[in-house]
Amino acid sequence: MAKITLSNLAHSYLPNPTGEDDYALKELNHDWVDGEAYALLGSSGCGKSTLLNIISGLLRPSRGRILFNEQDVTDAPTAERNIAQVFQFPVVYDTMTVRDNLAFPLRNRGADAAYVQQRVQQIGRMIGMEAELDRKARGLTADAKQKISLGRGMVREDVNALLFDEPLTVIDPHMKWELRTQLKELHHEFGHTMIYVTHDQTEALTFADKVVVMYDGRVVQMGTPQELFERPEHTFVGYFIGSPGMNVIGATVKNTSAVISGQEIALGNVFGDPAGKVELGVRPEFVRINEGGEGLPARISRVEDVGRHKIVRLDMGGSNVDAIVAEDATIPADGVSVTFDPAGINIYSDDWRVAPVGEDAA
Amino acid sequence: MNKTVNQKAWFLILPVLVLVGFSAVIPLMTVVNYSIQDTFGNNVFFPAGLDWFRDTLQSDRMWGSLKRQLFFSGIILAIEVPLGIYVALNMPKKGFWASFCLVVMSLPLLIPWNVVGTIWQIFGRVDIGLFGHTLAAMGVDYNYTQDAVDAWFTLVLMDVWHWTSLVALLAYAGLQSIPDAYYQAAKIDQASRWKVFRYIELPKMQGVLMIAILLRFMDSFMIYTEPFVVTGGGPGSSTNFLSIDLVNVALGQMDLGPAAAYSIMYYLVILLISYVFYTVMTNLDKRDGVK
Fold it and tell me: Which of A246, A346, B35, B123 could form a disulfide with B261 if both were Cys (CB 3.0 to 4.6 A apart)?
């Protein structure tokens, strides 16, 4: 188990990167605290797998250092780093039995036979394959194979970190839930540092203590699920996390008020005079629909009933706004207007959040 | 969907039946016909029962050829398969040199059989051949026209030169289809090079290797042109393989009946061995149920 430090780390797949755009992973300084479970969240191609492969040593970064417990391992091969990694698609040794598959990493390190036997049994129970331990891995279903991969990742107790690269992609939803719960339990039990790459926000939010959101080769925000929800630091975070994502509407902002298409809206905080492209972000949970009266005039274009609540899609003077209303709420037919709960409003300048005056620079 | 019964559909496969009839069934039946009849000429035939088969089975010459043939196929498989895998493992994975290797390795495969035979016939000659002359100059007693061991050595070397590329190319294709994640996982599991080969590469190559072994077995078991050109079956009958022997019976002695019986049995042996190969190897594949 180890603290992992990334220092001025950057990576480009080109031999001679010139501009910022050539880097798949932009310069990054970050500490992964020992024993925490992180989720690395982002859309495809944002650099999350690159970052993971750099940590595991499968890729050598173009710039910067990577340290395990303050010890420089930038040039250390994968084998020396003593990490475990589970890949997106199942990697099993087809000709071996499930038992031999699980025992493989231990035996390669010359572990004691009795210990291997006992540990494999334990892991077999954990992944729910105790009954199939003596079966050949070939011919098993994709999710059974992926469970073996997970098991092989977890079988060593002394690993510095456990890395998961979208491991549940091929697993059916019911099993996903179960495995994720098991991973979390495992984390509580052994306290490994875990880094879990995913593009599925539910997976990230339920698995991790801290979620790291990446966008275009950059870490845009790191925080607890609640922080990501309440204070997205970047419009991407707002849009990527949440279902549906945050509404982002062009506005002019001056101190305590914002103006959207000629209408003034009161803000709960003082924002000064942000420059650049200014936008107002508000999550659908904080959008209220009123019948007539005050607020911004809007037209309802669609209502989706998702069971626990309803999602109302509105057209507000050309821009789309989503609102979430209670399942039993009556939705007025015509002539509606919307208001925003001031507590849920964030202001963005050039996609980055503007901290209101007086907020902790946390 | 309900299927309607319409026996007229049989007419649709008629063209294929006719084609196969002319290309395979009729020629084969002619051979079958010869194998159970005898003639004194003038195109008058009379039944001979299974005499030709009995004669062939009792022929020491045939058994000698069969043994040599099996021995030859065994040797070249034992050399070409491991060597081909070794070459494939050491080929560049991408870039210019990968294409270069592929082209260079395909060259022997593109040369016609009798040309390969001629090349080696000259190459191995002690008087003017580069190979034979060099060996002689180094003081090695080598002469494939007089010494049976030298003749065998030349034929095996020629076959290895001609066909190892095929095995290598097939194995290479198998290796290329292994996703990177497997090698990465092996690194993380700290598997040794041998274990990577044994548990990742070899199992993933199994399918293509089966094809390679089958192809090389059938081809080497039917080999005719190259040994015919290089040694003509000699010295003595030391490289007299089944196909060479068969041609001697059929065209040298004009014994059509025995030759027909011979070829039918030859064909059945190849079919049988290929079937056994195939069954054994696909069963290896299925051996994954609960033990």
Answer: B35
Taking contacts as CB-CB distances below 8 angstroms, the residues of chain B near A87 are 181, 184-185
Mean pLDDT for the stretch of residues A14-34: 80
Q: Which residues contact A94 (CB under 8 A, 6 or more apart)?
A: A136, A137, A138, B203, B204
Q: At B97, which CATH number? A: 1.10.3720.10
Inter-chain contacts counted by CB atoms under 8 A, chains A and B: 65
In this prediction, residues A104-126 reach a mean pLDDT of 87
CA A168 → CA A149, A160, A179, A204, B222, distances in Å?
Answer: 11, 22, 8, 12, 52
> Which of A85, A94, A96 lies closest to B188 in CB terms?
A85
Residue of A56, A100, A104, A152 to mutate, testing the B interface (most B Cβ within 10 Å of its Cβ): A104
% of chain A exceeding 70 in pLDDT: 98
Tens digits of residue pLDDT in A38-55: 888 888 778 888 888 888
Q: Is the full-model pTM beyond 0.90?
A: no
Architecture of domain A4-230: 3-Layer(aba) Sandwich (3.40)
Interface check B93 vs A, CB under 8 A: no
- Total number of domains in chain B: 1
For chain B, which residues score pLDDT lower than 50?
Answer: 288-291
Whether B211 maps to a domain, the answer reads yes
CB spacing of B200 vs A56 below 8 angstroms:
no
Write out the two tokens for A351: 């996609």
From the options 2.40.50.140, 3.40.1190.20, 2.160.10.10, 3.40.1190.10, give the CATH code of A246-354. 2.40.50.140
**Res B242: pLDDT:** 87
Distance between A162 CA and the closest CA of chain B, angstroms: 11
Q: Do B189 and A152 touch (CB under 8 A)?
A: yes
Question: Is B28 inside a domain boundary?
Answer: no
| Cα–Cα distance, B288 to A110 (Å, whole number) | 27
Distance (Å, rounded) from C-alpha A30 to C-alpha A341? Answer: 34
